[in-house]
Amino acid sequence: MIYLPVGIRSIAVNFPSIIRTNDYWRENYPDVVATAEQKSLSKVFSPADATPSNKFEQEMTPYLKDPFRGTIERRILSADESSLTLEYGAAKEAIAAAQMSPKDIDLMIVASLWPENILPGNAAFLASQLGLYGAAWNLDSTCSNAMVALQNATALVRTGEYRNVLVVISCTYSRFTDENDTLSWFFGDGAGAFVVAPLRSNQGILSTKIINTSATCGTFYNELTTNAEGKPRMLIRAAKNTNRVLSETAVDYLRECCLGAMIAAGVTLDEIKFFAFNTPTAWYSRLCTEALGIEPERTINLYPHYANIGPMLPIANLYHGVQLGKIHENDLVLVYTIGSVSNAAATVMRWGNVALGSAPVTLANLTVRLPNLVLT
């Protein structure tokens, strides 16, 4: 099937001002660090049996000696930051990079993990801040938010319903974890945005393969509790069997989505120039390269410096892939995401002349170190 050339026109990222390194916990929570192997993060990411039983656990093994499981630093919201402030910064940059104004955007799709209110989501509030006049929708597919939103935006532009669609994604895990819970070491915050619009001939989205991840239901869940002041608070929890479920399904989801998307696009692994795998753990990119049989130099691993930023991972990977010169115009790019209790998704695209938003101040040092992150 021949599709109209539609894809990403611009992309921007926005991260919180606080960079929290492992030393923060060593200095403030030494007892928690000392007993980390009895805490939640270790229970989630340890072999289900005495020896590794699958590829996921084999790649995880070198990190078992590290209580932080490969995380070096993560970006965390300050007291005056929120999902909305992060989304606004990313959205404004993406519109400007595309050389558009808010009046050029006739649809905005917003996926906030999580929004500022239980209901409604952030879309209308963000539209007001940006001065948008078109439609503004909320969407949810957890860590596959970006790819599900991209598929929807692309389809709507191809049908002619809309011409320029702004997709805005945010992740604010730190609001839903306690500092004295080792699971907080695993999470970070951030936001990203991209404009989907018509591109030059033969560029843009070629195919998408999405499958549900119902086998992961019950792994991560939310629990309503109260804080020290007695006020209600939602926290992220992990079930006892989370590692077993994630490790046993990881490779199958990856292969089904990636190979399915490539077959639909009519391309081969050798033709893909860059792979943007979402990296929810330090070893996930290596798991992907080994499972697909590709060279690690064809991807990057951002996890050590961002931790798990959920649905923001593919956007950050694409942004830095361009920044590092790993993605050029007309390159074939494959993006893969895995969302627990939602969907796994792979998209094949031929990269256009994609403009980047400016790098936030907190990315300055990271950009210098990023070449080291090619090693998985």
From TrEMBL:
Keywords, comma-separated and alphabetical: Acyltransferase, Transferase
Gene Ontology molecular function: any one: 3-oxoacyl-[acyl-carrier-protein] synthase activity
Matching Pfam families: ACP_syn_III (PF08545), ACP_syn_III_C (PF08541)
Residues covered by the Beta-ketoacyl-[acyl-carrier-protein] synthase III C-terminal domain: 264-351
Any single GO BP term: fatty acid biosynthetic process
Domain Beta-ketoacyl-[acyl-carrier-protein] synthase III N-terminal stretches: 140-211
Lineage: superkingdom: Bacteria
PANTHER family xref list: 3-OXOACYL-[ACYL-CARRIER-PROTEIN] SYNTHASE 3, BETA-KETOACYL-[ACYL-CARRIER-PROTEIN] SYNTHASE III
Name of this chain's protein: 3-oxoacyl-[acyl-carrier-protein] synthase III C-terminal domain-containing protein
